[in-house]
Amino acid sequence: MSQSGGTTIPLEHNTVRFVDNFSAGTRGSVSAEYFLEQGYAVIFMHRIKSLEPFSRQFQKFLDLLQVSDNSENPVITVLPEYTQKVATILRKYREALDQGKLLQLTFTTLSEYLWLLRSACQALAPLGNGAILYLAAAVSDFYIPSNEMSVHKIPSSGPPTISLHLVPKILAPLVSLWVPKAFVISFKLETDENLLISKARTALNKYHHNLVIANMLQTRKQQVIIVSKETEYSLSLTDEQLDNGEEIEQLIVNDLVEKHAKFIGSDEVS
């Protein structure tokens, strides 16, 4: 299972306003493509209107098209310079769907995400150690309990006072109860480099999952640090690789696939 995008925190039951984050869903959507290339079937949980596998490569899709001058029977085609790229990506997308290897599920709010995650875990639990949970969604850290939320739109007559509560850490029941045999990867994004590794290790020690992928906000597209209980090491792209359109998610997924195979093998031996 791969996740993508952020969750919203409604401020009213009849929601007009909400708290959000900047996540566009890049890491999750790109990684889903590479997991499919590696032969995995992917449940892709994503925020509505965030990036999706394959289509994320055509953010301005109309710019790729041309239409004939025949007003009665217009013919729409892809511009010649984009035809090969569109055809390649479309084939990969159709192959994933035809083989039943890609299931896309959408969420918007935190509560929708949590219920969807629980249901997905129930579906994956029978796979045992064959399941990977790639928890790349930007889940909100704070929320407003339902009984403290305004029913209608908060009046704009003056600045409101809003009391936010900490969201319970869902990793605890996920790892210990929902999918106890799965290979679970969480993410840690920081802006202070001095806190990055210590927070990643704190999460591993607290929730007892397999890996944390730690990254800095400013360099997240070029470098990540893979943190396990025993080791830590960097995966990175050079400036030249980045300029050439290479994606660090390919390095991440390749690394995880190797680790997952060893994880399955160690369970079989034991």
Give structural attributes.
single chain; alpha/beta; ligase activity; Phosphopantothenate--cysteine ligase; 36% helix; ligase; 5-stranded mixed beta sheet; Rossmann fold; 3-stranded parallel beta sheet; CoaB-like_sf; 270 residues; DNA/pantothenate-metab_flavo_C
Helix and strand topology:
Blueprint: E1 2-4, E2 9-10, E3 18-19, H1 26-37, E4 42-47, E5 65-67, E6 76-78, H2 80-98, E7 102-107, H3 110-124, E8 132-135, E9 142-143, E10 165-166, H4 171-178, E11 183-190, H5 193-207, E12 211-216, E13 223-227, E14 232-236, H6 239-243, H7 248-269
Parallel strand pairs: 1-4, 4-7, 8-11, 11-12
Antiparallel strand pairs: 2-3, 5-6, 9-10, 12-13, 13-14
Helix pairs in contact: 1-7
Provide a descriptive summary of the structure in words.
- It is a single chain.
- This protein is of the alpha/beta class.
- The chain has one domain (about 1-55, about 100-270): 3-Layer(aba) Sandwich (Rossmann fold).
- It has helices at about 25-35, 80-100, 110-125, 170-180, 195-205, 240-245, 250-270; strands at about 1-5, 10, 20, 40-45, 65, 75-80, 100-105, 130-135, 140-145, 165, 185-190, 210-215, 225, 230-235.
- The strands form 5 sheets. Strands 8-11-12-13-14 form a 5-stranded mixed β-sheet. The protein has a 3-stranded parallel β-sheet with strand order 1-4-7, sandwiched between helices. A two-stranded antiparallel sheet has the order 2-3.
- The mean pLDDT is about 90.
- Belongs to the PPC synthetase family.
- This is Phosphopantothenate--cysteine ligase.
- It comes from Ooceraea biroi (Clonal raider ant).
- GO terms for molecular function: ligase activity.
